[in-house]
Specification:
By secondary structure, the protein is mainly α. The chain is built from 29 helices and ten strands. It has a six-stranded mixed β-sheet with strand order 4-3-5-6-7-8. A two-stranded antiparallel sheet has the order 1-2.
Length: 708
Amino acid sequence: MQRYAAGRVGYTHETEIDQESKAAKDDRELVRLKGISTVRSSHELGRFSDHEHIEDIPTLDSQNSKAMAGKMNEVIKPLEWEDLRFPTKKESLDFLKRKLPILSWVPMTTKETFRADVVAGFTILVMVVPQGMSYANIVGIPLVYGLYSTMVPCLVYAALGGCRQGAVGPTALVAILTNAAIDGLLTEEECPAFFDGSQSGAQSEVCPEELAKLASLTAFITGILQIGGSIFQLGFIVQFMAQPVVSGFTSAAAFLIALTQVRNVLGFSIERSQFIYVTVGEISKNIHKTNPINAVLGFSFFFMLRSTSSIAKKYKYFAWLRPLAPLIMCVLGSVIVYAANLDTEHGVEVVGDVPSGLPPFSAPDVSDVGRVIAPSITIVVLSYLVASANAKTLAALNNYEVDAGQELFALGFINFIGSLFSGFPSTISFSRAAVANSVGAKTQLFGAVTGLGMILALVLLTPVFAYLPNFVLGSIVMSSVVNLVAYEDAIELWRTKKSDCLLWFLAFLGTLFLGILNGVLLAVSISLILVIYESVRPQVSLIWRVKGTTTFRSIKQAPNGEWVKSILIVRFGAPMYFANMAYIRDTLYAMIKKGNPEEIRYLILEMSPVISMDSSALHILEDMAKDFDTRGLQLCFANTGSRVFKLFTKAGFVQKLGEDWFQPSTAGAVSQCLIHQKMGHASGNVVNGVHIANPDDDGEEETKDTSV
């Protein structure tokens, strides 16, 4: 095979020192005096020269070191077919405990934890009853479906969920996503009154019961997708959502949710829309229809809820107000309406009759899957993003761990089973989970208590909701979503990184003016563009020598370093593959062009961040090596990982370039270049076995084979 590099220059094994010529030993000594490490071949990867040894490092003995390495390797080792076998009894039990956390927390239950979980469960119950009905109102379906969407998910999550303080059920964000997904999808056969014009308003106002069926179908599809995602370990997809993008989208969604509730507070009807300009236009057009009593009471209740929330946060003595405030407002509002006959004499809208009893079993019509499959994907991603973040936060606060894959599995089942009992999509609620944690929930039992309490509420308490005014529900929603408008994030991003602040505003404005679903699509697209951009334009670091040492660092890490003559050392902070190699190649050629021929004779690629490489990147490196050979430049690699070095070896690149040009350290690579340069000093530069005339020489370039 044709070689286009010098190959071994001679100093490859320290055991061969006694056989070296005196001149070669002088050369080595010269390099040592320069403070550069001895040259080692690729066969010595992982070995240290004398000056690299550090004394008194606490280490495990050989047996324990191998045991620790084996444990860590189990985490990163890919599944091989030959590794498949029947599990042992212990492995089977561990698997069941992971998939059924109820098998773990039931044995942990004591009198103290039982008492704490019962208190937490009923606390969340009084909080979720008004919230659940409010969020059903956001979806545009009868309020009782908000209670259905709490009962079953709480019971299922208690058995399958891993977060001990995770309070599941309807949330404002998932509710508005569900409304955006299904409102307007009913056919003429399903909602004739909407199409013949006999009733005005959105489909959610004309045919709420039919829309509730679509909401349950959305929960069914969401659950199936989440279960499939957990089985195939697709939870990593949410990592493509950049935090500024998610924050901007969530803030815009919260803003839209608050605007949709203005009609309940002011007391007039407006067209439902996920576009801010439509909603604002409707409010402006109908503002003259405002019911003064409704508006005064609505805003009063809103400010009371905000005040109680602030007081509960500031004073521990009033912490009980945080979970109880919504229920107190519901009771107070119902009493005011009933006592003053506001519903009959002043036109204040109330909830009216709420069906009592348990939710009916409702098998979804799978023939309609095509209508909701696309928006269901959006709900899957965002609900899991919210749930996983909440679960990890709560687990960290209480010193335990949660399995993100198991959380996705549990979310899938709460939606799948919940859909069979008329529920719409649910996830972990941050506000209710925070309350559960603050009141001392210890295990998932508290969720089961909430679910059982909801059964009692559905059977016994629904007549109480007849006089519940809509302005109370609207004020509860508005108070809840105010905290989701993360304007502080935008301010902080502007202070720390303005480009991320721009992303926040793009997601925020895109969601406001393009709609919820299009806003999600825009947010995901922006996130993917960021990932691709960062991938195809990896970070570039210039490396130089730290003064007086054999250590080499980035010029940003060591601003007072020294540049090694005629050597350019570059590090790219990403794997090399087809998408970023054009940028890498162009950057290297631009650097070489910027330097004079006398200033750059050797190019060292520091490869420690390059954990993988594809064939396209390999071919480009081979072409660059050939081109450098014609230019009188030498390519050298330092700190090449075992996976990449194996690729180089299989492709014959190591043999072509020469093993000495693959060094286990940057110092070793610099030493190799300096020795190679010194050997060519007698008559110009010897590069790749070819003599290159010095730039100051007159006459034509002379070539002479000097390969060893």
